[in-house]
Amino acid sequence: MPAHRYRPYxxxxxxxxxxxxxxxxxxPRWFSTDLRDGNQSLIDxxxxxxxxxxxxxxxxxGYKEIEVGFPASGQTDFDFVRQIIEEDAIPExxxxxxxxxxxxxxxxxxxxxxxxxxxxxxxxxxxxxPLFRDVVFRxxxxxxxxxxxxxxxxxxxxxxxxLGDETVFGYQYSPEMFTxxxxxxxxxxxxxVMDLWQPEEGREIVYALPATVERSTPSTYADRIxxxxxxxxxxxxxxxxxxxxxxxxxxxxxxxxxxxxxxxRIEGCLFGxxxxxxxxxxVTLGMNLFSQGVDPQIDFSRxxxxxxxxxxxxxxxxxxxxxxxxxxxxxxxxxxxQDAIKKGFEALEARAAAQGTPVNQTEWGVPYLPIxxxxxxxxxxxxxxxxxxxxxxxxxxxxxxxxxxxxxxxMQIEFSRTVQQYTDLRGGEATPEDIWFLFSDTYLERYxxxxxxxxxxxxxTATAADGTCRLTLEARVDGESVVLSGTGSGxxxxxxxxxxxxxxxxxxxxxxxPIDDGMRPTTAVYAECLVDGEELWxxxxxxxxxxxxxxxxxxxxxxxxxxxxxDPAVIVPATR
Length: 576
Ligand SMILES: CC(=O)SCCNC(=O)CCNC(=O)[C@H](O)C(C)(C)COP(=O)(O)OP(=O)(O)OC[C@H]1O[C@@H](n2cnc3c(N)ncnc32)[C@H](O)[C@@H]1OP(=O)(O)O
Ligand SMILES: CC(C)C(=O)C(=O)O
Ligand SMILES: [Mg+2]
Description:
Elements: E1 29-32, H1 34-40, H2 48-61, E2 65-69, H3 75-86, E3 95-101, H4 104-113, E4 119-127, H5 130-137, H6 141-163, E5 168-176, H7 183-197, E6 205-211, H8 218-231, E7 238-244, H9 251-260, E8 265-268, H10 282-290, H11 303-314, H12 335-355, E9 386-387, H13 392-403, H14 409-426, E10 429-430, H15 432-443, E11 454-463, E12 469-477, E13 480-488, H16 491-498, E14 505-515, E15 522-531, E16 534-542, H17 545-561
Parallel strand pairs: 1-2, 1-8, 2-3, 3-4, 4-5, 5-6, 6-7, 7-8
Antiparallel strand pairs: 9-10, 11-12, 12-13, 14-15, 15-16
The site of acetyl coenzyme *A has 16 residues, from helix 1, strand 4 and helix 5.
Subunit structure: Homodimer.
Cofactor: Mg(2+)
Family: Belongs to the alpha-IPM synthase/homocitrate synthase family. LeuA type 2 subfamily.
């Protein structure tokens, strides 16, 4: 690789930097550039109708400062700005911004688009970095500074001429390519612009400090921001706005360190749309704050709806592993993750019960899940998905979550081997439907798919004075109706004896629980048995608890004596 063609980024001499010690305790101001920087990077830029939908979405989510376009770029952006002004679609607490180059005809057209706006900011930019001075403008520093100053003067003049007092007018200037510009020159240009605008109480100036192309570590960006923040005059009237792009994939980190370094506002796009690798992702930034207990001031509670809207409007897909919003980001396939998540949910529920708080108000702490998926409108259903990398925890989670079955640990181990065999042979995922099919096919007698030699038809029990249980079991064995009987310390043990003509059965342990699925009361019983010397689990589910115990023992016996009806490798669940 010809690495010698690239030069390293120069560090900033700021030994007394303070940002590493700072903490982010409140949300910065947010500035959405979805309708400008995001839009200008799309294969098919948004029509006025699509822009309007995006605008309304941003407003609904809570963004208060929105760059709505580059009106001089063409009729589409111009018309959109006119539309939201004329239709009175800009809420009182929302300020729109429009971008312009520092060229008179472009500035004039830009200001024309804003006539009648209650509040509006013009954002003027020109690149200040050496490469742009040499290659794009073919001009020295003074001329570059003059572009900024003349542009500012023109913006102010046209604002006065075209908007008058009707519009609360704001101004933003960007030394484009700030991160490639000598710091003292960036400061000089910003200072010259400030001399014209004269910020004061109630008359803020915004400086965006863009990493137009990200070329350095986030720490260097933070150093630059802290340096500018310290050296800009009238700092209290300046809104410093970070504008990170994501060329090195570290825009989110850069934005966060910029906040620590004193930035007031962050500019970005939903899901990181934007030129090349994108603008910084406002969703990730907001959710990162949320996950630290800081209110982002933006509503992400229905993140999938936001994602779907953005995908439709931009015609760009959000990656399945995109932080907080991707399809797979709250899903664990691997066994150890699933085990920890399942234990985490159990612990959370126990903690909530002990404190008497609802789970959704209890402090979050589930391994591998940085936030509660429900806080962004996701369900727990997809949290655990089972494939060949999964273990018993995942399988048990699905049985519990989808079927309210609290399968005992040793039985989980046994059943997860069946699921493992299935996923190894079939490849891919075992869906909750597949898992239920495997479970019921392995352990439960089903009217549509009987298996094993014994089918329970009915039973009666009597309890002797010493507490022993006497069971009379009506069953079909090998197609013949029979009546069997046995006694034992409980119905399971009595069933074991009743079946002794078929196999030597010892009940090792049983456990059961009511199934709370909001339907009719049902009991699930799991029985670990020694059947002709083989340790096997059985399960019984029945409206009568005693019958569930009997069925659980019959299930273990049938598994030893019978044949599973279908090879798991070729099962195709009816639900598919
Ligand atoms: C980093 C950013 O995202 S900046 C925003 C970029 N966004 C866009 O460009 C989208 C909208 N832009 C457009 O539709 C068009 O570029 C227009 C309408 C603004 C201008 O179009 P054109 O007049 O055809 O010019 P073109 O886009 O080729 O611009 C290049 C000229 O503008 C000059 N220029 C570039 N940026 C600026 C600026 N900020 N201020 C003043 N002049 C500038 C260039 O030096 C060049 O001048 P030259 O022709 O004398 O060499
Ligand atoms: C116009 C400016 C702020 C910009 O988008 C950039 O430099 O990336
Ligand atoms: Mg940009």
